Amino acid sequence: MRQHIQAKLPGLSPCVEFSEEDFMSRVARANQHLSSHIDLNKVVLSRYIGFDYDGDLLPLFNAYCLQQKYSDAILMDFGEVSAAIASPELLLESDAGIVTAKPLAGTRAAGKNATENSKIEKSLLFDRKELAEHVLGLAEMLDELKPCCEPDTLVIKNFLNFHYQNNLMHLSSELEGRLKSDTHCIDAMLALFPSVMVSGVSKTEAIRYIRKEEPFSRVLFAGTAGWASGRDCRFSVIIRSFCKYGKRLFVQAGAGVLEESVPVQENQEINLKMSEMLARLGCIR
């Protein structure tokens, strides 16, 4: 990956990264941990590449974020901390009392045409690991959101559908319910935060494991960004993002690890998720 970036982007080469070899070693250790701990069924591990950069994120926002289909484009600037985000994943939306979440888990490279995409969709639907990863997270999100909704209103819609984002295809489902009158939309958002799709199942054990095994802080990555007004809101998961802390710019991605995960394949998934973001770095050389 490093050689690929340097070949495409002379003058903007990685200054710090969590290496592919280290990541695959951590996936292998997670496999062993998952096989012996019944309270942890899935954990999302991440990897990053960092660059020295002291410029504005607006060029990346225009070149990448605004070009991504079916994504929430968000630009944040708090001085020393800023981010350009093209999130395909809706953590929570509240509109006129109806709350909606659209979790994603299960990833493939999108095809070049409809025929290729149809074949890839079928392979994704019959991939036991990808299905388990999606369903485990969806079930936990149901449990988290249920106390915030009126009885018998929370349902799963568009189960195991497909969400496309330019070069990527994800398994997608939708949760929808009516917010309780005495519950604020922010309470519902916080019930889901951080998303199990970027942490794991069970969430508490996954977060504990990530804090122990990832030798870095995620800071903004895997968090949420959005807006709220009254009882309405829209918050997206911070993935597919360029996050800048001081004079360093980070590209980061994660992969869901189950007991049967293959380290090389999980690393390839991260490379796939990073690939288009890294390609767009040319706009700030």
TrEMBL record:
InterPro entries: ADC_synthase (IPR005801), Chorismate_C (IPR015890)
Cleaved signal peptide residues: none
Gene3D superfamilies in UniProt: Anthranilate synthase (3.60.120.10)
UniProt-listed SUPFAM superfamilies: ADC synthase
A Pfam match: Chorismate_bind
UniProt domain Chorismate-utilising enzyme C-terminal: residue ranges: 20-273
Name of the protein described by the UniProt record: Anthranilate synthase component 1
Organism: Candidatus Magnetoglobus multicellularis str. Araruama
